[in-house]
Amino acid sequence: MKTNRREFIRKAGLATACVCTGLAGVNGCSMIGGISRTPGIMSDAWLLDGDSLVVDLNKADSLRETGGAGKLNIGDKVNGDETKVIIIHHQENDYKAFADCCTHGCRELNYLQDKQQLECSSFGKSAFELTGKVIKGPAEDPLMTYSLQKTDNRIIIKIT
C-alpha cells in the first residue's frame, strides 16, 4: 500500500504523540498528578508559633490512633513559600513529620502503614522510608524531614 506525504506526516505525528504520552506516564510524579488519601488536619488543631508548628492532638483526629496520618498547609507563612507538612503517628508516642512534597515532582504523599513507608500520590509512585530515604524512584533525593517533640498532648515541629 502506497502512502502519500500527507498521510505519512499524519501517522508519524500520531505515533510521536502516543510515544510522548507513554513516556510521560512512565516518568511519573512530575507529569501525572494523583490525589492524596491522607486526611487534612483542621486549622483549629494547629498554630504557627515563630518557627514552630504546634499541633493539638486533642483536636487532630487523624493522629490519635497509631498508624494515623494527617497533613496541613501552612500556606505562605514560612519564607513566603507554600509549606505543606505530613505528620504520621508511626508507633505509640512516636510521631514523624515530613515536607508533604515528593522530591521528584512535588506531589503530595500518602502514608502506607502496612508497608511502613510514604508514597507519592502520583502515577510514578516514588516510595520513601520513614527516615526520608528513597526506596524506589523516579525520585532520587530523600524527603525533607522535620524534627519534633511530643509534650503532653501536643506535637511541636521545627519547620525551619
Explain how this protein is built.
This protein has 160 residues and is mainly beta. The protein has a single domain, classed as Rieske Iron-sulfur Protein (3-layer Sandwich). The chain is 14% helix and 38% strand. The protein is built from one helix and twelve strands. The protein has a four-stranded antiparallel β-sheet with strand order 1-2-12-11, with no helix packed on it. It has a four-stranded antiparallel β-sheet with strand order 3-4-5-10, with no helix packed on it. It has a four-stranded antiparallel β-sheet with strand order 6-7-8-9, with no helix packed on it. Strand 1 and strand 2 form a beta hairpin. The radius of gyration is 20 Å and the shape is elongated. About 9% of the residues have low confidence.
Task: Please provide a brief summary of the model.
This protein has one helix at residues 5-27; strands at residues 46-49, 52-56, 69-78, 81-91, 94-99, 109-112, 117-120, 127-128, 134-136, 145-146, 148-151, 154-158. The protein has 160 residues and is mainly beta.
Structural domain count: 1
CATH architecture: 3-layer Sandwich
What is the CATH fold-level name? Rieske Iron-sulfur Protein
| First and last CA, distance | 66 Å
CATH class: Mainly Beta
Strand content: 35-45%
Low-confidence stretches: 18-31
| Derived structural class | mainly beta
Largest sheet: 4 strands, antiparallel
Q: Give the oligomer, counting copies of the same chain as homo and different chains as hetero.
A: single chain
N-to-C order of helices and strands: HEEEEEEEEEEEE
The helix fraction, in percent, is 10-25%
What is the CATH superfamily label?
Rieske [2Fe-2S] iron-sulphur domain
- How many β-strand stretches? 12
**How many distinct helices?**
1
Give the overall shape.
Answer: elongated
The value of Rg in angstroms is: 20 Å
Can you give the mean pLDDT? Answer: 82
Lateral arrangement of strands in the main beta sheet: 1-2-12-11
